[in-house]
Specification:
- Helix content is 14%, strand content 32%.
- The protein is of the alpha+beta class.
- It has a four-stranded mixed β-sheet with strand order 2-1-4-6, with no helix packed on it. Strands 3-10-7-5 form a four-stranded mixed β-sheet, with no helix packed on it. A two-stranded antiparallel sheet has the order 8-9.
- β1 and β2 form a beta hairpin.
- The longest helix has 19 residues.
- The N and C termini lie far apart (98 Å).
């Protein structure tokens, strides 16, 4: 009798093992392992564009300074470079923004930076021989530059002089 019981138990065990391994068993839980492989990203081998040695800024009838290259009121120039301002509408002048802890601007020598009024075909050119971030505004229309945010209010602008 014992061999029959053992044979029956073995048959039931094999039957249960077989049914638990088939797809038709709804109670079977299936675990999938997904291995993700990362696709290599392209690494740029190009070097950043160096800052220009010349820049042009226009003051227009909208009373905003606009750098020709960036289209914003921020001009980036290489140390030793020159910036030329022109008027595409209205009468303007340049005034250095005083250095304050709030605006984060570096000191710009007003005696060498500030200009008389200019308009039409007149231009004002300044050379920048010191690395730093300098703020300025129009002496006729006012404004206040913020060198920390490279923004400002009114007719103001920021010059970033880089090595």
């Amino acid at each position: 009798m014992m061999p029959k019981v053992l044979a029956s138990v073995a048959a039931v065990f094999l039957l249960l093992s077989y049914t638990s391994c088939t797809k038709e068993n709804p109670r079977r839980s299936e675990t999938k392992t997904i291995t993700a492989s990362a696709t290599p990203t392209a690494t740029s081998t190009s070097t950043p564009t160096p800052a220009p040695t010349t820049a042009t800024v226009k003051g227009g009838s909208t009373n905003k300074w606009t750098d020709d290259a960036s289209g914003t009121s921020t001009t980036t120039i290489k140390v030793g470079g020159t910036v030329t301002w022109s008027s595409s509408g209205g009468i303007h002048s340049l005034e250095a923004e005083a250095k304050t802890p709030e605006n984060g601007c570096d000191e710009l020598d007003a005696s060498k930076f500030d200009s008389d009024n200019f308009s039409g075909t007149e231009t004002v050119t300044r050379n920048f021989n010191t690395v730093g971030t300098f703020g300025y505004h129009c002496g006729r229309h006012g404004g206040s530059a913020n060198c920390k945010t490279a923004a400002g209010v009114g007719m103001s602008g920021v010059i970033k002089v880089v090595p």
